[in-house]
UniProtKB/TrEMBL annotation:
Organism: Paractinoplanes deccanensis
Record's keyword terms, sorted: FAD, Flavoprotein, Oxidoreductase
UniProt KW Flavoprotein keyword: yes
Span of domain Acyl-CoA oxidase/dehydrogenase middle: 121-214
Protein name listed in UniProt: Glutaryl-CoA dehydrogenase
Signal sequence annotation: none
InterPro entries named among the record's database cross-references: ACX4-like (IPR045008), Acyl-CoA_DH_CS (IPR006089), Acyl-CoA_Oxase/DH_mid-dom (IPR006091), Acyl-CoA_Oxase/DH_mid-dom_sf (IPR046373), AcylCo_DH-like_C (IPR036250), AcylCo_DH/oxidase_C (IPR009075), AcylCoA_DH/ox_N (IPR013786), AcylCoA_DH/ox_N_sf (IPR037069)
One Pfam family named in its UniProt record: Acyl-CoA_dh_M
Domain Acyl-CoA dehydrogenase/oxidase C-terminal: 232-373
Cofactor field: FAD
Annotated ranges, domain Acyl-CoA dehydrogenase/oxidase N-terminal: 14-115
Amino acid sequence: MLDGDLYAFQDLLSEDEAAVVRRVHDFLDAEVVPIANDHWARADFPHHLIKRYADLDIADRQGSNLLNGWLALEMARADASMATFYGVHAGLAMGSIRTCGSEEQKARWLPQMAAFDKIGAFALTEPTGGSDVAAGLRTTARRDGDTWVLDGNKRWIGNATFADLIVVWARSVDDDQVKGFVVPRETPGLTATKIENKIALRTVQNADIVLDGVRVPEADRLQNANSFKDTAKVLRQTRSGVAWEAVGVMLAAYEIALKYAKERRQFGRPIASFQLVQDLLVRMVGNLTGSLGMCVRLAQLQDAGQYRDEHSALAKAYCTTRMREVVGWAREILAGNGIVLDYDIGRFVADSEALYSYEGTREINTLIVGRAITGESAFVS
């Protein structure tokens, strides 16, 4: 049992699912954790690990939502950057094709992506459009015979500097509806420039994308993406994954702080024996347990077909807020050692800020839940 799984939620996994989680856990501890700080410090992506992720055989696994959530937790527990890389590729990019693609498109792209022979990116956010992207999407798509011409700009696009396929969302000038396109990165007119000087998720290769007369054949337009409602179907699935990632970050922070408290001695005794340190550790495990319980129940609702937008919105908002508290308390326990990468926690403190914001800010997710429970929309129109 994990130190932080005080209520033994992991026991809800089947034997086969638990075996998959153990296999991924062991891989991450052996291959990712030892190099995470170095690559984070250099803002460099460990490309040599891509095919190792393929060996895990999990990218196109049609398992329970509980299993998929627990895998997201494990990845974030090791390194939030690599969890984001995987979430963009297997969640957002593959999820777009799986949800909005035709059967021919799924057969054409998903096997290669599941094998990590083709890496995916997801281009929705724009320089001037984040929370208001549903109405404010400015990238345009113009039909020209059997081809579409894309023009516009995208920002914060994870994996985009090295992805093979980029799912680009653009507004049709003909019907004013948002549509999705699968665009090879080397397509003429598409440029992806790495965003520098980040203080969070430094290993993730986020990019600014410029689309200047990019021509995409009709065959590469996602055939079942006909409005932003279809885009939202993808986002509502991946939003729950971010809640699980937040729990993974909390788990890592708790494990680091607990180990440190047992080993660090002051006044002739381990600091774990001090009342104030125990208070912080109990607050941490309380946040962790409550958030994990919410995610487990969310997964059960998904598996039962009873899942609604407000479920993932509340989980994302709540878990990432609790995560911020937990990483702060862990940093407090480590005192000065908490601000250097050598003790790991500094990386999680920084990375938590990105998880707190992406896949819908706390404020936007709050309004989604608020609308559900009051029947009144407080969104600005």
